[in-house]
Amino acid sequence: MQHLYVYAVLVFEAMATFVGQVSVLSLIALFGAATTAMVTTARKAVTLLLSYLIFTKPMTEQHVTGLLLITMGIVLRLLPEDKEKKGTAERQQAKAQRGEEKRRGDGVEEETSPLV
């Protein structure tokens, strides 16, 4: 084993990648794709901000504008909307009505949603 350091770095990179992928997939399973996208975007924004603070790079107006846009997008997504709640209730009611219509004679619902 001539280059043990290289092998150690490769194993560490593989393990870090595995943990990252499992974390993202768990977030998707628990909270949905939209929330996961917000979390990963926020993580990138925080990483960028910390990079500028730690390495004392000059932050231009474009950088500040980008960080503000990302922050505003995340905050707006977190705010509740009355329209969305009303639409969700109506969709659930319509879905329940369709479910009753699609029942077979023996009382078992047929699976009609696509698998993918």
Automatic annotation (TrEMBL):
Residues 84-107 have a biased composition (Basic and acidic residues). It comes from the Eukaryota. Residues 84-116 are annotated as: Disordered. Pfam families: UAA. Signal peptide: none annotated. The keyword Transport applies. The chain crosses the membrane at residues 6-30. The keyword Membrane applies. GO terms for cellular component: endoplasmic reticulum membrane; Golgi membrane. Its main location: membrane. It is found in: Membrane. GO terms for molecular function: 3'-phosphoadenosine 5'-phosphosulfate transmembrane transporter activity; antiporter activity. It is a multi-pass membrane protein. InterPro entries: EmrE-like (IPR037185), SCL35B1-4/HUT1 (IPR013657). Keywords: Antiport, Membrane, Transmembrane, Transmembrane helix, Transport. Belongs to the nucleotide-sugar transporter family. UDP-galactose:UMP antiporter (TC 2.A.7.11) subfamily. PANTHER family: ADENOSINE 3'-PHOSPHO 5'-PHOSPHOSULFATE TRANSPORTER 2, SOLUTE CARRIER FAMILY 35 MEMBER B. This is Sugar phosphate transporter domain-containing protein. It comes from Aegilops tauschii subsp. strangulata.
